[in-house]
Design brief:
Blueprint lengths: L18 E2 L1 H11 L3 H8 E5 L4 E5 L1 E3 L5 E3 L2 E2 L4 E2 L7 H5 L7 H13 L9
Antiparallel strand pairs: 1-3, 2-3, 4-5, 6-7
Helix pairs in contact: 1-2
Length: 120
């Protein structure tokens, strides 16, 4: 692994389209002790274009990124439903490297400062 999620400010949680399946919604419903219908309404929205038809996790404004998943704790910078997180979140980053750490490595080299942290 070329990254440490514990040191990340939630890069993957800032992705604009975090698609969830019916199974993910079921898992969230169980986690919160609510119906699947209530979980779908509270935590997701329907996104449809000519080519895409998905159920996405809702977002809220963030101080580091434009927005993050609304299940993300913006103060602690971590997922509030980690044990019940959707499959797409469980699979991220789809390999052995993370986009945030690639960006961070580039910025640190560009700034010639190995401790540099980009901010808004």
């Amino acid at each position: 692994m070329k990254f440490n999620c514990a040191k990340c400010p939630g890069y993957c949680c800032s992705h604009g389209r975090i698609a969830v399946s019916d199974n993910d919604i079921r898992r969230l419903a169980q986690h919160f002790g609510i119906s699947e219908r209530a979980a779908r309404k509270k935590h997701t929205f329907h996104y449809k274009t000519k080519d895409i038809d998905e159920q996405l996790l809702r977002h809220h404004k963030d101080t580091v990124y434009k927005s993050v998943c609304h299940l993300f704790d913006r103060k602690e910078r971590r997922c509030t439903v980690y044990e019940a997180r959707p499959n797409v979140c469980r699979k991220y980053p789809y390999g052995d490297s993370c986009g945030y750490y690639g960006f961070l490595k580039f910025e640190r080299a560009h700034q010639d400062d190995e401790k540099f942290i980009p901010t808004v």
